[in-house]
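Section 3.1: Structural characterization of target chains.
Under the original work plan, the team committed to producing a structural model for every single-chain target entering the pipeline before any wet-lab resources were allocated. The record below documents one such target. The sequence was received from the expression subgroup and is listed exactly as submitted; it comprises 556 residues.
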Amino acid sequence: LQDMAEPMKGGQVSKLMFQKLYLIKEKALYNKMNMMRPEQNLVRGICWCPNDDVKTVEELFANLQQSKPGLIAQFKKVDDHTLTPPTFLKSNDFIFPFQEIVSTYGTPSYREVNPAFFTIITFPFLFGVMFGDICHGLCFLAFSIYLCSANESLKKEKSILAPLLKARYLFLLMGTFSTFCGIIYNDFAGLNLNFFSTCYSVKYDKEGENLIVVKKPDCVYPIGIDPYWKYSPKQLQFENSFKMKMSVIIGVLQMTLGVVMKCVNGINFKKPYDIVFEFIPQIIFLIALFGWMDFLIFAKWLTDYSKTSTTEAPFIISIIINLFLKFGGGDEKEIISGQQGYSIIFFILIFLAVPWMLLPKPLLLKSDHAAKEKEKGAAKYLEEGASGSPENEEKSLKQTLVQFAPRDHGFNFSEIFVHQLIETIEYVLGTISNCASYLRLWALSLAHAELSAVFLDYAILPLFHAHLPFFVFPMLSVAFTVFAGVSFGVLMCMDSLECFLHTLRLHWVEFQGKFFKAEGYKYSPFSYRDTLEPLIETNHQPCLLYTSDAADEQRD
C-alpha cells in the first residue's frame, strides 16, 4: 500500500491514482462501445459530428486504415434522416455566463434562436435599470475589473473569489449599465450631482421660509435628471411617473423582440402556419394594445402642458381602460388629434387577433393530415404492386436510423385544438400580466434610490446640521463607517441579489416565454479530458490525462 501511494517516476501522481484514472477512462470508453450494434465481424455506431469537423474526422479514419491495413473503419455522413440533432453551443469566457443563464432554463433545439445572444445586452441592462446608482455601479464595476485583471492569479492561488471568475464579464457589464442608469437618474448614493449647469434657479421668498424654484427659459439639462428636482415637493411623484413609464416602454420593446424571434423560428423551421396564425395576430395584439400605449406616452412627453393646468393633461390609463369599456371611445381629453378613431381601429384589431390565433391553425392541420393519409394509402398500394428490390447498404442504414427516430403518436385533433386554446389564452392573459410584471423595474429602482436616501439622511446628513465643531470629525468617521457598512450589506449584497433574481425572472418568463421552447439537448462529444478533469480537480492533484502508449497497445 505504501508503494502504491508513492508518486510515480517522472510524475506527481501516485500509482493508485494513476490506476484509478486509467480504469475510469476504460470504463467510459467501453460504455460508448456498448452503445454500438454488432453486425457479423463489425460494429456499427451512430454519432453526431459538427459540419466543420466532418473532413477532419474523415481524414482520421483514412489515416487509421493506412496505418493498420487489417482494420476496417468507415465514416459516412448521412443527411436523409428524421433524427433530432443535438445543439452545438460554441462558447468562450465572455459568452459562458450568459449561456449558462439560458441553459439553466433549458437547451435550445437544433437551429432554434438562442436567447443567449440577446441576453448579453438585455440582462445587464435590466439589472442596471433596477440597480441604477453611480456610486454603487462604480463599486460593482471596480470589483469586476479586479476579477478580470487578476483572473490568472486568483485561479492559481485558489482564492475564495475563484468561483466568481466565470461570471466576471457578466459583472463587468452589470456594473457598466448600473453606472450608466445612475447617471440617467442622477443618483450618487442618495445625492444628486450637478454635472452640468442646472436649468433652475432657487431662492427664498420674502419671509425666508419657503424655496421658490424658477426654470430658466429654453434650457434643457443635457444628460439625466436635473439635480434641482430635489427641491421640488413633487420630486417623488415625478420620478415615479418617469420610471414607471420607462419600465413599460422597455417591457414592450423586449416582448416585441421575443415575438419577432418566434417569426424567425417559424421561417427557420419552415412552419408557415406559425408565422401566419401565431406571429402575425400576436404582434398585432401586442402593438395594438401596448404599442399604442407607448406611443401615447411619447406623445404626452412631447406635448407642452406648461401653459395649461396640469389637471388638463389626460391620463393614459383612462384611455386604455376606455379602449375596452367604451369600445375605444370616451370623454377624456385627446393627446393627439384623431385619437378616438385610432382607438376604435386598435380595439377591432385586438378583437380579431384572438380568433385568428385560435381557430385557423388546428383546422388547417387537420386538413393537411387528411391529405397526407390519402397520399400514404396510394403509395402503399403502389408499393405492394411493385416487385421487391434487394436491400443495399444505404437502405439498411436508413432502417437503422429509423429505429432511433422519435415515435409518431398519431394525429389527435381534439388534443391539438385544446393545445391551441391554451396557447391563445396564455398569450392573451400572459401579455397583459407580463407587461405589468415589467413594473418591477420601477419598483426596485425606486426602492434602491429611497434606501440610499434614507441611509444618507439618517447616518451622515444630521452631523452637518449639528453645531458640534469639536466632535464632528470623529463622529463623521463613525457615521461614515456605519453608512458604508449598511450600504454594502443591504444595497451591494442583498439588493444586488434581488435585482439579479428579478432580471432572471424577466428573461425566463416575459422574454423567452414568447419564442423559446427549450426542448433540445446539448452536444456533448466523448472526451477523456472531460471525463477525468472533474476527478482531478476534486482531488487537487496534477497528473497526466492520458495513459502510456504501452497500456493503449495492450488494450487494442
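The chain has 20 helices and four strands.
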